[in-house]
Amino acid sequence: TLEEIQEFKELYQQDEKAEKLINLGKKLEGVARHASTHACGAVISDVPLDQIIPTQHPSQSDQNIITQYEMHSVEDLGLLKMDFLGLKNLTIIEDTLSRIYEVHGKNIDIENIPLDDEKTFELFQNANSTGVFQMESSGMRRYLEQLKPTEFEDIIAMVSLYRPGPMKNIPKYIARKHGEQEVEYLHPKLEPILKPTYGIIVYQEQVMKIAQKLAGFSLEEADILRKAIGKKIRSLLEDQKEKFITGMKKNDIEQQVAQQIWDWIEPFAEYSFNKSHATAYAMIAYRTAYLKAHYPVEFMSALLTSKKNDVDQVAGLIEECRKMGIEVLPPDINESFRNFSVVAEEDKIRFGLLAIKNVGEKVVENIVKERRSNGSFESMEDFLSRVDSKGLNKTALECLIKVGAFDRFDKRNKLLSNLEELLGFSKEIRKRSNSNQQNLFQDRFDAKLTLQKADRASQNQKLQWERELLGLFVSGDPLDRYQRQLKNTFPLQQIKEDLEKQQDGPRNPFSRKIVPGKKVKVGGMINNVKQIRTKNGNSMLFVKLRGLTDKMEVVVFPSTLNKHSKAFKENNVVLMKGKVDKRNDEPKIICEEVEKIVNSN
């Protein structure tokens, strides 16, 4: 900075305090600010590490051993540094296999599934890849639909190409695979190396192979070239370029062609991917797709369990289940376990008891343990007699009732209206048991509950309880009642998808109905109303509009809010007109007019 910025240099020369401060800064320059640990990096050596490099504990309370040298210095010393990545998808695969065994009694050898399975490739070709590792983004799904993968190599290539930089080559890869664009090579010797990827450099191994076969590099030299290009090491690049071109000339490749090949591979190699890494990821993608294709219920229940703490993701996966024809049922006292589970012989998924707000782990553990030991519960009396009331307090019992866990025994409102009677019955049973006045086994059948009648809860009330205690609607959707009114609105999901298609290359066969600025009519339920003040002190709103297919943010400026203030209340169902906007890459609607309040809360 002192050499490049004149004003800074003058300040240093003329101001004594500035000179002192800058001199101190120069002494600190390059000094490590703090020590941190690479979360998944491990160093491997054939001798104790402290014989080669200094080691330390991360902190006084942490007795793990870490290197004092940072990762690049460790590699420069010739030590092997490995990154071990923990992927939730491996747990999902393992969980799915366990569920398959529980339901079907089959042991699937996931290591040896066929890599040319027709149903699996059909899933990829139709882009039904929600929940499939590396393949579930909307952009990836669009490309899968265009590519129509037919072999495992296609999956490896998509894992490698779907990243900033190489993504621009995906349309070319697709066109060449389908014979719509000619595959050309700068030199015949490139063909055997690049033929599997239709003449496009996709992998680092291809760069190394070109250096070997065309320029006579050894494997070690080819790896240095890969590193120099991939990591943009300027000090190495010029030397490598000269060596590369000289080597090609020795192999009877003309100077001009050699220069063309270098100019061609350098930008490609910068973004090329390690094929062994891509293959490992593609294998996980393929295995998850295989399980989804052949055992959809077991796979989706395992996937839902893995996302159980994210309500939005669970809601999205339940919607995916509906598209797949899999019903997701609310919690049930006889069928639910801790987490999402498969309802045997019905191809359905049941919510877990732990998903219910205010129902603790101890209560769930007691319920499942008792059921496994002594069979299903036969009635409310049976349940209250057998499950330890310690922990099953009023709130927990109320929440179990509201989500429908006892629907097989009685109506929700009736049980809620008699909640005190239920709690009293439970206490009395426990009291008798503790005093040994009667045999508890006898109590199961002799003790009877007398419950007062009550009006049935409406379907809408049940859905609101589900949303309150499970975080989402399960047994239905309040918007189902308004399908007719919402029929002529633009689906929010399609708006999002059309906006994302703007980013695709020219080879996009899909229509582009929606562009930023287009006026649309949309409808849905108002959620998450957030009010702010403008610079002028006026109120404006940011609300979430939940439609039949998706959710989207709606911006309501002061002028619109003043005209339609009654519309933007939580849970109102409205029809509105507005402009599509995509600032900061986030699709939203700028509301201009509320056409109709379909339902007011």
UniProtKB/TrEMBL annotation:
Residues 520-597 form the OB domain. It catalyses: DNA(n) + a 2'-deoxyribonucleoside 5'-triphosphate = DNA(n+1) + diphosphate. GO terms for cellular component: cytoplasm. It is found in: Cytoplasm. One of its GO terms (biological process) is DNA replication. Its EC number is 2.7.7.7. Keywords: DNA replication, DNA-directed DNA polymerase, Nucleotidyltransferase, Transferase. Residues 89-251 form the DNA polymerase III alpha subunit finger domain. GO terms for molecular function: 3'-5' exonuclease activity; DNA-directed DNA polymerase activity; nucleic acid binding. CDD domains: DnaE_OBF. Its main location: cytoplasm. Residues 325-412 form the DNA polymerase helix-hairpin-helix motif domain. Residues 3-86 form the Bacterial DNA polymerase III alpha subunit NTPase domain. This is DNA-directed DNA polymerase. It comes from candidate division MSBL1 archaeon SCGC-AAA382N08. The gene is dnaE.
